[in-house]
Amino acid sequence: MRHRVLGLAALAALAGAATAADGLRIAAWNITTYSGGHQPEIATVAYGVFDGRSMDPDVILLNEMTSLSAVNSVVQALNNGLGSNDWVAAPFFTGSSGGLNNALVYRESQLDLLAATLLWPGTSTEQPRNIVRYDLRLDGYASEEATISFYPTHMKAGSGSGDIARRLIESQRIRDDAETLPAGRNFVIGGDTNTQSSAQSCYQELVGSQANNAGRFFDPIAAPGTWNNSSTFRYLHTQDPSGAGGMDDRHDQLLASASFGDQVGLDYVGLFDTPWNLSTWNDPNHSYRCWGNDGTSFNLSLTTTGNVNVGATIAQAIITMAGSGGHCPVFFDTVVPARAGATASIDFGTVNVGDTAQATLEVYNAGDTARWGAAGIEDLSYTLIAPVGFTVPGGPFTDAAGGGVNTHTVTMLTSTPGIYSGTLYVFSNDPESPPLAVALTGEVADSSCPADIAPPFGVLDLQDINAFIAGFLGNDPIADIAEPFGILDLQDVNLFISSFVAGCP
């Protein structure tokens, strides 16, 4: 499964690596045994800028929160860094084994919380941490395609068979739950997987193909392998920046549903499920980043001086928050769904048989660029279907957000007199609404009988007289039947009378 996101402007922006993003940025961060404090360091990791780049997330799946007050301390730090009170905490569930809990924080200007569900409590023999699902929806949207179910995870540590078995229990439960989600729903698992290799059963349970793939996760950067202590994956390692063990493992990951690569609704910015270039930290085909790791820290503490990913200040803040045996954050970007807009109706007025009758239809991407940025909104893709009696170019067509409008010529057929009406439909990838309906109306008059200007056509009667008088007095073009056109005068009156007296052929 290799898909191209439609937000080409967003993808092009990756040429300079991760930047403060338009669209929605999803992050995961294990802040080692966090009980509060270090707010300047958290703000620096999240909002510090180096070489034009910043983490700048919109939602964070958190690990190792010791209490609700710890989560609130993270929220305060993020709000301090953002300079607003936009960050809030989703409901917090305590009781995880060892006192290290998962949590989720998000920007309420970007996301609306729909539900927070404790699926399974953590135990000392199964998964050690609570399994919680957080359902959030893009603010201003209502569809499943704009909804994400998040599973923060902090799986059992260790490489023994018992540790792997306990991780498998968590993976099975999360995948089973994801299989029950509504059609079109996006879902993400993020956090500290404590998994040393993609071949382990717990990881394969998440990403492997099964009889039911409705709950299947994908690694957006398609980087399977034995990550532990392998220099091949040095650009993707997230543990341990403090140097207690050195940067030697890809424990922290974000895995996503196939819907992030289907070009409908939310979509991953980059080439979803395309292998990462293992020779660089900033593969331009991906928005996925291991924040802080520039590949120079294999089996060492995170590089500070000369760190080309985040610079010395942000790198040191990551090290400070990692404590002993900690983690780097990871994130990726998405574009939000396109919104379709179009001309509401078109009236061709009255034209004569055989004349050309054309009008302009405007179609445009109505995504909220003030909220999401032009590059953060999916390109609108659409086709046009015309009713009988009218023609339009079929398409497909595209329109990026934040620009002008696309214009299309709609033609009314004029070979036969009569009143024409119908509905033109704009079918698009906007998941929020059914096809847009554009009302078309128009009238074709028989020019061989100038007085026949009102239905029923083919018959000269009082309806034609009334229509001509009303049109003439109201300066309506319906009464402009004689040269010089554009002026209602005696020539129009004389032609109407002579035509009416002569009758239609």
Structure in words:
The relative contact order is 0.12. This protein has 9 helices and 24 strands. By secondary structure, it is an alpha+beta fold.
Task: Describe this structure in a few short sentences.
This protein is of the alpha+beta class. It contains nine helices and 24 strands. The strands form five sheets. Strands 2, 3, 4, 5, 12, 14 and 15 form a seven-stranded mixed β-sheet that branches. The protein has a six-stranded mixed β-sheet with strand order 6-7-8-9-11-10, with helices on one face.
Domains counted in the coordinates: how many?
Answer: 3
User: Which architecture of the largest domain does the CATH hierarchy give at level 2?
Assistant: 4-Layer Sandwich
Shape: elongated
Compute the number of helices: 9
Query: Based on helices, strands and strand pairing, what is the structural class?
Result: alpha+beta
| Helical proportion, percent range | 10-25%
Ends: how far apart?
67 Å
Would you state the CATH class of the largest domain?
Answer: Alpha Beta
Mean of the pLDDT scores?
93
Strands, count: 24
Rg, nearest Å? 31 Å
